[in-house]
């Protein structure tokens, strides 16, 4: 029997894009991490946390693989207007098996594969990344639901320009000689494509540490990462102008700040929102 679930290799963060002959570069897929376990015609799917999500994605029950058994690593995404739709794929993930078969026709997903951890009885995790990539090319054939990820050698800045031009979430840098470890590793790095916005500081949730922000009077983001000095300034503002309502202290319009975030959701909210500073 194949091991199930398997802890996936996780990314560290790099502050800025770079070129290097020691790395390959991939676009960062915005979706749900998924490891596909295939054995003699049977498929099991697991999320990053190990949850069995096989029933949610019937598109992947007959994957285009040339193997008696294998374990693949990748991300399930859903495209809307040719862009990754995180809310859409989460809807698929949470919908449950009863509606999964109908949703596969209305909102089909794509499994973007970037690694192979097991093949025909052999564990591949101690082999270098490029050797695993070469085998992946032989084992997986692209179809309407499964595709191998594109990557560039050395030219991270070239890929970064394309990421920014297309408004994608970011990119990933992977060392060519990296083995696959079941934990977070600096051999795989994520560089996120943040955009910035000037916002109104609308309130604060001390229990969660969220600064509530929006471009108007409605909350559009829950910003994290406020510095010690800015927290001291915020507490002073809250003590003077704040109105406590349950777990939230609200502020009047007029207090301005700057945040960075990855993308706008379809509901107009800022995803992965981080505090930058007050606007004077």
Automatic annotation (TrEMBL):
<feature type="domain" description="ATP-dependent DNA ligase family profile">
    <location>
        <begin position="102"/>
        <end position="192"/>
    </location>
</feature>
<keyword id="KW-0436">Ligase</keyword>
<dbReference type="GO" id="GO:0006281">
    <property type="term" value="P:DNA repair"/>
</dbReference>
<dbReference type="InterPro" id="IPR050191">
    <property type="entry name" value="ATP-dep_DNA_ligase"/>
</dbReference>
<protein>
    <recommendedName>
        <fullName>ATP-dependent DNA ligase family profile domain-containing protein</fullName>
    </recommendedName>
</protein>
<comment type="similarity">
    <text>Belongs to the ATP-dependent DNA ligase family.</text>
</comment>
<dbReference type="GO" id="GO:0003910">
    <property type="term" value="F:DNA ligase (ATP) activity"/>
</dbReference>
<dbReference type="Pfam" id="PF01068">
    <property type="entry name" value="DNA_ligase_A_M"/>
</dbReference>
<dbReference type="GO" id="GO:0006310">
    <property type="term" value="P:DNA recombination"/>
</dbReference>
<dbReference type="InterPro" id="IPR012310">
    <property type="entry name" value="DNA_ligase_ATP-dep_cent"/>
</dbReference>
<dbReference type="GO" id="GO:0005524">
    <property type="term" value="F:ATP binding"/>
</dbReference>
């Amino acid at each position: 029997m194949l091991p199930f679930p398997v802890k996936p290799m996780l990314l560290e963060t790099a502050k800025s894009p770079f070129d290097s002959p020691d790395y390959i570069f991939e676009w960062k897929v915005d979706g749900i991490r998924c490891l596909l376990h295939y054995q003699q015609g049977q498929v099991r799917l697991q999320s990053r946390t190990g949850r069995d999500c096989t029933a949610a994605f019937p598109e992947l029950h007959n994957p285009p693989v040339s193997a008696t058994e294998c374990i693949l690593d990748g991300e399930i995404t859903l495209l809307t207007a040719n862009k990754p739709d995180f809310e859409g794929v989460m809807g698929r993930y949470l919908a449950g098996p009863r509606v999964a078969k109908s949703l596969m026709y209305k909102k089909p997903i794509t499994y973007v594969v970037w690694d192979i951890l097991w093949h025909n009885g052999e564990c591949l995790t101690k082999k270098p990344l490029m050797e695993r990539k070469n085998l992946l090319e032989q084992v997986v054939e692209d179809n309407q639901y499964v595709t191998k990820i594109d990557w560039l050698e050395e030219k991270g800045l070239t890929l970064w320009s394309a990421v920014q031009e297309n408004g994608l979430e970011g990119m990933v840098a992977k060392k060519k000689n990296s083995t696959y470890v079941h934990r977070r590793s600096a051999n795989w790095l994520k560089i996120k494509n943040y955009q910035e916005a000037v916002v109104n500081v609308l309130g604060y949730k001390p229990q969660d540490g969220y600064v509530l922000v929006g471009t108007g009077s409605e909350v559009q983001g829950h910003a994290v990462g406020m510095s010690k000095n800015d927290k001291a300034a915020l507490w002073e503002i809250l003590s003077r102008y704040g109105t406590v309502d349950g777990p939230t202290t609200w502020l009047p319009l007029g207090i301005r700040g700057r945040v960075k975030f990855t993308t706008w959701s379809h509901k107009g909210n800022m995803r992965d929102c981080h505090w930058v500073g007050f606007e004077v």
